[in-house]
Design brief:
- This protein has about 170 residues and is mainly alpha-helical.
- The protein is built from six helices and no strands.
- Helix 1 packs across helix 5 and helix 4 crosses helix 6.
- The protein starts with 10 loop residues before the first helix and ends with a helix.
- About 35% of the residues are buried.
Amino acid sequence: MNIPTHNLVSLGGLTVGLSLFAWQFTRWWAGHKKRASLKALRNFMPFVLCLAYGMLLILCAGGLFGLLADWSLWGASAIGDAVLIYGVGGTSPSVTRTSNIALTPGGHVVVVVGTVVLAAVWTRTRGWRWDLFAGVLAGVTLGLASGIAGTAGYVLSPIVSTLGDAVTGLQ
């Protein structure tokens, strides 16, 4: 199955990702007086892990996961573009990193295992976890961005690929 992905992020898509991150961070920050405590950090970690998962998801070379991530990125970019162009009268150029890093086969294994873990968490809880959805979508929109916003995706990819390759014996 050779499903192509385009993986281009516009300034509008980046705006959506940063807005989702800012929303979750602000709600977490305002909800905890002792922000450095383990309890407070434990409440923010699911969002951060989903953010990292979304960044890995957009780095998939293709397939159904890559296609779903690409569609999510396209939709978020379209919404963000509309807000920037019609909402504030700005423009929305491409902010995609010039050197994209694809995951290795072991990195793809980590994404599949991460998907299983995320599905297990989502089915265990009652109701839809919007914070997890927001984390994945924010990660998808930020994973390919140039600049500081996309640095985590650039750093995360080789680490996860090396870990996945080592665990599966591909190294």
